[in-house]
Structures are given as structure tokens and as C-alpha cells.
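SEQUENCE-TO-STRUCTURE ENTRY
===========================
Question of interest: how does this chain fold, as expressed in C-alpha cells?
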Amino acid sequence: MAQTPPLMKQYQAPTEPKISFPQPLTDRQKYEAQNTINKAGRPYTRYYVEVKQYSTTANISSDCNTITFINYGSNDVNISGVVLNQGQQLTIEGNVNEIDTTIYQANFSTSISTNNSLTVIRKLYA
């Protein structure tokens, strides 16, 4: 008995791979990608904390959500009308996504900076 030849596959020319371009993000998607961290389905706003020391009179720009003034020196310090004695602190907080744009004036009770120490902690959105 004669054997029949196996069926031959038809030749197909190689096809060019399809190039898929990413879809542009919407403004909302861009905002969320830059400002939130998806953790268990809940968004979080990114922020960082900045700490600075002052020993002389200064204008302190807030431009943040929360600012805290702590007097670690032995001299009193006046923060825009609020006097902080040694060891006292003043915290000014905003609601979520609010920014305080106040420029605070820090004045020490003496001009000698050896015992002046004001720590300023600011919460800034990234």
C-alpha cells in the first residue's frame, strides 16, 4: 500500500507586531498619580515635614498645612503677637488640603542670640 504524503501547512508571511500606544491620562488620573497612594483602596495625600532652627528675629513663611513653633531657648519669643515662654509651643493646623500662607514674625525678647532657640516644624504637601 502506498503512503499518502502528510498534509502540508500553508505558508504564512510573518506579520508585523501591533504597536499599542498608551492612552493619555486624564487630568484626574495625573493628579491621583502625583498626590495619592492607593492603600487598601483609600487615597492618601503625600506630604513631607521640614524642621528649621532660628536664633535671631526672622520672618517665617508658612506656605504649609500645619506649622508648629517650639521655644527651646531660655528667652521668650513673640510669634506674631503670641508670646512663647521657655518650653512652650504653638501649633496652627489647617484642614485636609488647606494651605496657610501667613508670614509669621518671630521676635526674641533679647537681641543676644546665645540663649535663643526657636524650632519651626512645617507639614508641606508634596
The chain has a mean pLDDT of 84. The two ends are 83 Å apart (CA to CA).
